[in-house]
Specification:
Radius of gyration: 18 Å
Low-confidence stretches: 1-13
Mean pLDDT: 85
Shape: elongated
Number of helices: 10
Largest sheet: none
Distance between the termini: 46 Å
Helix content: over 70%
Length: 198
């Protein structure tokens, strides 16, 4: 089921959807989530529409392009990552909390093959759906980063935008190396050492 955040993301003009349109929207999101998990983010949009029981025109009315659909799917699961950042906000080791949150992002991104690559490409295009998705993530990450910097655990010049790009790059590396289950932890360990204040 779509979360409140996903529903808000889908209400473009600020007016509520009709009941049938909302059902179609929810079915399309559910089928897209399944298709992206099974086949990656380049899964057939026609197949997603067919599995949702609607025509491709209905899909495009809700999501004008693949990036918009990917953004809505990501928004549908964003709440869990934001909740995790709030849980870690009071952790005893602020730098470790930051790295743990980055690991949660990597785990999420690698659920959908192609998502991390899309986020890397979207970072420079603020107008895209995926770039807008990253705003609440950057805000949450900024709070964890600031806490680690205030504790003297992380260098002051570390920037959250760069850190999120690095996290997406790690997720992409993990996606490309499915036979190396330790890769994410190794790369995050290197990140942890690189973040530390000297």
């Amino acid at each position: 089921m779509a979360t409140d955040t996903a529903r808000e993301h889908g209400l473009r003009a600020g007016r509520p959807m009709r009941a049938d349109a909302r059902r179609n929207y929810d079915r399309l999101l559910a089928e897209a989530r399944t298709a992206f998990t099974e086949h990656g983010t380049d899964a057939s949009l026609e197949d997603i529409a067919r599995r949702a029981g609607v025509g491709i025109g209905t899909l495009y009315r809700h999501f004008p392009n693949r990036t918009a659909l990917m953004g809505a799917v990501f928004y549908g699961e964003l709440d869990a990552l934001l909740a995790r950042s709030r849980e870690l906000a009071e952790a005893e080791q602020p730098c470790r909390a930051l790295v743990d949150w980055l690991r949660a992002i990597i785990d999420h991104a690698t659920t959908y093959r192609g998502l991390s690559r899309a986020f890397l490409c979207a970072a420079a295009e603020e107008c895209t759906e995926l770039a807008r998705c990253s705003e609440p993530m950057q805000e949450a990450g900024s709070r964890l980063l600031a806490r680690a910097q205030q504790a003297g655990s992380v260098r002051g010049e570390v920037d959250i935008a760069d850190l999120m790009q690095l996290t997406n790059a790690i997720a992409l590396a993990v996606e490309q190396s499915p036979d190396d289950p330790e890769l994410a932890d190794r790369l995050l360990t290197l990140t942890f050492h690189g973040l530390k204040a000297r």
